[in-house]
Write a structure and sequence with these properties.
single chain; alpha+beta; Glutamine Phosphoribosylpyrophosphate, subunit 1, domain 1; nine-stranded mixed β-sheet; four-stranded antiparallel β-sheet; 9 helices; 13 strands; about 35% helix; globular; Ntn_hydrolases_N; Peptidase_T2; N(4)-(Beta-N-acetylglucosaminyl)-L-asparaginase; hydrolase activity, acting on carbon-nitrogen (but not peptide) bonds, in linear amides
């Protein structure tokens, strides 16, 4: 059988590229998800996931993560976990629990500690500086505090036909203590069925959780739609519905992969993502809304990639967000 991986954002590239090579050799879909997301969680320059993630209003880092096995629908998730190096690994462990498979706050942190998961301070000097700058902007310009909410979400298919999805995020920058978005919520932030495919979302959780977009995308693939047609239909119809009912829609994007290794992506903003299959090397793409509720997709240019790298690695003393 074939294999494949798709993930939200450029930050997923190194993990997807590495684990796609393992999938090509017969690696496990679940292991590929955990290891690829851990690479994102561990990299301090990715400011919306794991170590170096964006703090809440109290300058504390509360992390969300989820893991779902498409063979048996086992789900594990954490929300508001603190001082734990790899929330995705905790979520994967919880997916094997018959009860208590979704833990939040101090309960999630206690579970991780008791189970021997590595504990560490997750806020970096860079993240603290970002928080301080945001406070200055809020006070100077009377701005809304909330800015930034990029989740890394991945779907994986291995040669045995197993499919797995995982997510990890520090959530909304400057969020209220205890706030949880869509990322750890099954059906909204993620969903997978190995007999059909999987999908995962990123964007403003408060709007994404108003629908079950990941589940709906998988359901439409199950009805015979291609991944691209399914995700286009789900994203753009829901975007229009939100605008009609509420007057606006926050930024959100979905990626999906079916059990034949075909992928799709839809977004209401410009958005980067990564995909790799048996016939396509790992590549970074840019997507944006197109005409007639379709999506325009192109390979990221060398100039875009260079600008991205310079932006996220801006020296601390010159940091202006």
């Amino acid at each position: 059988m074939t294999y494949g991986m798709i993930a939200t954002w450029r930050m997923a590239y190194e993990g997807v590229a590495k684990m796609a090579r393992e999938l090509a050799k017969g690696g496990d879909a679940g292991q590929s998800i955990v290891e690829a997301i851990k690479m994102v969680e561990d990299y301090p320059y990715y400011k919306s996931v794991g170590f170096g993630g964006l703090p809440n209003e109290d300058c504390q880092l509360e992390l969300d993560a989820a893991y779902m096995d498409g063979d048996n629908f086992d789900v594990g998730a954490v929300a508001g976990i603190q001082q734990t190096k790899n929330p995705i690994a905790v979520a994967e462990r919880l997916s094997h629990e018959r009860f208590n498979s979704f833990l939040v706050g101090s309960g999630a942190t206690k579970y991780a500690r008791e189970q021997g998961f590595e504990q560490q301070e997750m806020i970096t000097d860079r993240a603290k500086r970002m928080w301080e700058l945001r406070l200055e902007e809020i006070q100077k310009n009377n701005l809304s505090p909330y800015d930034g909410h990029d989740t890394v979400g991945m779907v994986s298919l291995d040669r045995r036909g197993k499919m797995v999805v995982g997510t990890s995020s520090s959530g909304l920058f400057m969020k209220k203590s205890g706030r949880v978005g869509d990322s750890p919520l099954s059906g909204s932030g993620f969903y997978v069925d190995s007999e059909i495919g999987g999908a995962t979302a990123t964007g403003l959780g408060e709007d994404l959780m108003k629908g079950c977009l990941s589940y709906e995308t998988v359901a439409l693939m199950g009805q015979g739609l291609s991944p691209q047609k399914a995700v286009d239909q789900v994203v753009y119809r829901f975007n229009d519905k939100l605008i009609k009912r509420k007057g606006k829609a926050g930024a959100f994007s979905l990626v999906c992969l079916n059990n034949r290794g075909q992928w799709g992506i839809a977004t209401n903003v410009e958005f980067s993502f990564v995909a790799a299959t048996e016939t396509e090397k790992a590549e970074i793409y840019l997507a944006r809304p197109g005409k007639n509720q379709t999506t325009e997709i192109e390979v990221a240019t060398a100039e875009w990639l260079k600008a991205y790298d310079l932006r996220i690695k801006q020296p601390l003393e010159k940091l202006t967000r």
